[in-house]
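Reply to thread "Modeling small-molecule complexes from scratch"

Following up on the discussion above, here's a worked example others can learn from. I took a protein sequence and the SMILES for magnesium ion and predicted the complex. Inputs first:
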Amino acid sequence: MGDLYALDFDGILCDSCGESSLSAVKAAKVRWPGLFDGVDSKLEDWIVDQMFIIRPVVETGYENLLLVRLLLEMRLPSIRKSSVAEGLTIEGILENWSKLKPVIMEEWDEKREPLVDLFGKVRDEWMEDDLATWIDANRFYPGVADALKFASSKVYIVTTKQGRFAEALLRELAGVTIPSERIYGLGTGPKVEVLKQLQKQSEHQGLTLHFVEDRLATLKNVIKEPELDGWNLYLGKWGYNTQKEREEAAGISRVQLLELSDFSKKLK
Ligand SMILES: [Mg+2]
């Protein structure tokens, strides 16, 4: 009958870590201007480098902003306002982000929504001012653009990114037009709910369902839902996950570890 693929965007189709880290630094400068007073370009480079290592903890883009400030507080005792920054290591962030996040948001008196809006606004402005450099800060993984272009399966994008950004990158960088109704972006609800919606649609009855994601925590959320038992689940090894998470995934029978080269073949 055919296959339906629900694909995560960042870390599966597109390596956007450079772009999201630079956007986060720009947004952090807007949100907390005083914080960057003593910050030179060397320290700023250090922050962007660390962001590549801790990227696996990020579920939604605005968290990049929190990470930028946390990294700054780790390096600069004078600006420290959170109780967790002293003695914190990169390893510590990778291990404990879900516990650290609510603590720093409380201590910095920040709420999710304004940060989401600001992060989107900073990206919009960057795109408007200089679309070429914004696009250049992203790249599609090798083979992915062609796989999407020539896919015979029904493809949906399920992402925590704002849909308009995913659409622009697909169009401008990958040369692929995916209709906006096939893109479930930020604000369309949790991924588990999107998957439930997709499997219920009458035109999808009889299709084999596949969900490809690079975040193990998201796949675990799917496993928790008996209603979603029919989905084949894949952890993309090339994306933003750690060795430890890949080892854990290898022990979960519902989850298949997927190589990039096999992923491109599957869509065809
Ligand atoms: Mg991802």
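What I'd highlight from this example: The two ends are 14 Å apart (CA to CA). The chain has two domains: 3-15+140-267, 17-132. Questions welcome below.
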